[in-house]
Design brief:
This protein is α+β, with helices and mostly antiparallel strands. The chain has one domain. 32% of the residues lie in helices and 17% in strands. The chain is built from five helices and six strands; from the N terminus they run αββααββββαα. The strands form three sheets. Strands 1-3 form a two-stranded parallel ribbon. A two-stranded antiparallel ribbon has the order 2-4. It has a two-stranded antiparallel ribbon with strand order 5-6. The longest helix is centred in the first third of the chain and has 19 residues. Keywords: Glycosidase, Hydrolase. Pfam families: Glyco_hydro_1 (PF00232). This is Beta-glucosidase-like.
Length: 139
């Protein structure tokens, strides 16, 4: 960011589609697949260094993650996952579960609400999980 600032007269910068993929391991339970600490560390570390650059005057106006949901990637199909929400492709309902990174982002964006990363999908949630429970996690 500082290179961009110094070389190109401090342009307005929007960071788009920034994220990290992980192998789609079909042997994991939903509860285990939602434990994506690598993704949390990836975004945390990027934001720490981004903040340092902004403190030194880099004109960063936006940071957008990739992606909200696990999805079909043109180059890799369903073999990798990028989302902060786990999509259960196996149950035929495409049920969505919050990964730990989704909870981390909610906490990061809303410092008034503390969301425990200890709350993870339980084994018996696998057939019933949904983003509908989001309000229960916050409350």
């Amino acid at each position: 960011m500082l290179y961009m600032k110094n070389t190109y007269n401090n342009p307005i910068i929007y960071i788009t589609e920034n994220g990290v993929d992980e192998k789609n391991d079909n042997t994991l339970t939903v509860a285990d697949a939602c434990k994506d600490e690598t993704r949390i560390k990836y975004h945390h570390d990027h934001l720490v260094y981004l903040k340092k650059a902004m403190d030194q005057g880099a004109n960063v106006r936006g940071y957008f993650i990739w992606s909200m949901f696990d999805n079909f990637e043109w180059g890799a199909g369903y073999s990798v996952r990028f989302g902060i929400f786990y999509i259960d492709y196996k149950n035929g309902l495409y049920t969505r579960f919050l990964k730990n990174s989704a909870k981390w982002w909610m906490n990061f964006l809303d410092k008034k609400t503390i969301i425990s990363l200890k709350r993870q999908a339980r084994e018996n949630d696998e057939g019933f999980g949904s983003v509908k429970r989001l309000k229960n996690i916050k409350g």
